[in-house]
Amino acid sequence: MSMVAVYDIQGKQVGEVAVPEAFTGTPHTAVLHEAVVWQLAGRRRGTHSTLTRGMVSRSTRKLYRQKGTGRARHGGRGAPIFVGGGIAFGPHPRDYSYPLPKRVRRLALRSALCAKVAAGHLAVLDRLDLEGPKTKVLAGLVRGLGWEAPAGRRGAVLLIMAGPDQVVRRSVANLPGMRVLPATALNVHDILACEHLLVTREALERITEAFSR
């Protein structure tokens, strides 16, 4: 059983906590790739659309007689071969999402967490009680942990809360290097996209409970 550090709101280590055995295995890279592709496919809007020759506004008058000119036969300016004509076999609105087995999704999420634990990029926050939006407090926390994002790097730290918290969300809104998610919205893509994962103690308990079912 691996141990990860526990920090207070000032970014000072106050102890250690054991992570579940499920988070200490070897990451399954093939399943991680499959889950990320599945997740990004589901995010595609699929609203792309092109005009076929029946949709373009072009003259339908026959250009020249059918035979005797030595040229190819054409029936109108809307053919795909002409500039301004319709598109042959172009993209049309469609749904890119597809089902992925629940066992594969769970294994991918476990593998993503295992990768963060193995790299030492997962830490636990003892508690986070904010009476109001306090960007300065969370900025000091990131600075105390030494996890400040370089210029232009967004979302270097992913903060996982036990549930939706509008106060914390508003506090993080002006921090380019930090993002926040509830434990129920934890996903493979966001875990792999961040450099460091900061989980509150309560959120860790909920994640552990979910994987024990």
Polypeptide structure, described:
With 213 residues, the protein is of the alpha/beta class. It has two domains: 157 residues, Ribosomal protein L4/L1 (Ribosomal Protein L4, Chain: A, 3-Layer(aba) Sandwich); 41 residues, no CATH class. The protein is built from six helices and six strands; from the N terminus they run E-E-H-H-E-H-E-H-E-H-E-H. It has a six-stranded mixed β-sheet with strand order 2-1-3-6-4-5. Helix 1 crosses helix 2. The protein is elongated, with a radius of gyration of 27 Å. It starts with a strand and ends with a helix. The model has no long low-confidence stretch (mean pLDDT 89).
Summarize the structure.
With 213 residues, the chain is an alpha/beta fold. It contains six helices and six strands; from the N terminus they run ββααβαβαβαβα. β4, α4 (166-172) and β5 form a beta-alpha-beta unit.
Q: How would you summarize the topology of this molecule?
A:
Layout: E1 3-7, E2 13-18, H1 29-43, H2 102-119, E3 122-125, H3 135-145, E4 157-161, H4 166-172, E5 178-182, H5 188-193, E6 196-200, H6 201-211
Parallel strand pairs: 1-3, 3-6, 4-5, 4-6
Antiparallel strand pairs: 1-2
Helix pairs in contact: 1-2
